[in-house]
Amino acid sequence: MSSRRKTVLRVAGLLVVLIAAAFTLGDNLPDLGQTLDTLGSAQPWWLVLAAAAEMTSLRHFALQQRRLLAGFGVRMSVPRAIAVTFTRSAISFSLPAGSAVSAGFAFRQFRTAGASRRTAGAVAVLSGVLSGVALILMYGAVVLIPRGGATGNTDTLILVLSMLVIAGLVFGIDYYLAPRRPGRPVLDESPDPEPATGGWWSRAVAATRNTMSDLRRLPRRAWVLSLIHATVNWGLDLACLAATAAAFGIDVSLVRLATVYLTVQLVRQIPLSPGGIGVVEVALLAGLVSAGAAHGPAAAAMLVYRLLSCWIIIPLGLLAYTTLRRGPKAPQTPPVKPPALAGRH
């Protein structure tokens, strides 16, 4: 597809999102003064919980890929994995075609850690696949868990505290099960994956077959723990949004909030802008209003959530990149393109 046609499609998609948001909001766009007043009335302890949930979420995104690398016999320290996560997230949020550039950066970092080209590509692909499955699992858990007569903010407190406790337990289990010595590479002894040739259907079938082949060669413990890390990652990010909403007195059903969150994450996968900037804000604001939030609190919650989950990551990623530059250089080989849903970062 030509670059001009891609640009036209992106602009058309952006217009669709903006029209849908305008239809939802109608003539009730939040007033700037009202939004600023609402920001000043935030409950600080909810914001502390939101920040803790988001930072812990980023750690589990790093641990997901670290666990996959370990399953293929490649070791990466936790601090380096976190630095890679912050850097690639900042790239994804700030650059045109940021997702592709971010994937290429992660591929080179995997190679630097000692992964072969095929192993690095397999980790990139499997990380995206497991992340997509984890998003559905997280949403299903929120919808299916019974809550009795709890209100939205009571559910939010239970969600945030439970996710932080679960995150700590999963981190401890992962550390306990981590190999103390480098493992033997899993993929290097197997035939190379089938080349993705032919039409789009043939390429999709070949990519699916290669992914399943790599998954079968991966130890079960590795991909199960990676899936758990990915689910915790999504759950903590939802907890950040829920805590941010509660900080501004938005008392909506957690199921409705999770539905808004899932919709926003799906919209974010459309590459209309770097990191979904602009698109995510509009979609999230429209979703919160449609869920029953007042316009001022909805705008304030949207701004703080995006600050914690996106905007603040850009300078932090730049700092993380300075630490990665001191390490060894990656071999110069072209990356393998991961699937579209490679996680929320």
Automatic annotation (TrEMBL):
Membrane topology of this protein: Multi-pass membrane protein
Predominant location: membrane
Q: Which Pfam families match?
A: LPG_synthase_TM
Keyword Transmembrane helix carried by entry = yes
Cell compartment(s), UniProt: Cell membrane
**Record key words, sorted:** Cell membrane, Membrane, Transmembrane, Transmembrane helix
Asked whether the UniProt record includes Transmembrane helix among its keywords, one would answer: yes
Q: Which residues cross the membrane?
A: 7-25, 45-62, 120-145, 157-177, 222-250, 270-291, 303-324
Top-level division of the source organism's lineage: Bacteria
Name the chain's protein. Answer: TIGR00374 family protein
**Annotated organism of origin:** Dactylosporangium darangshiense
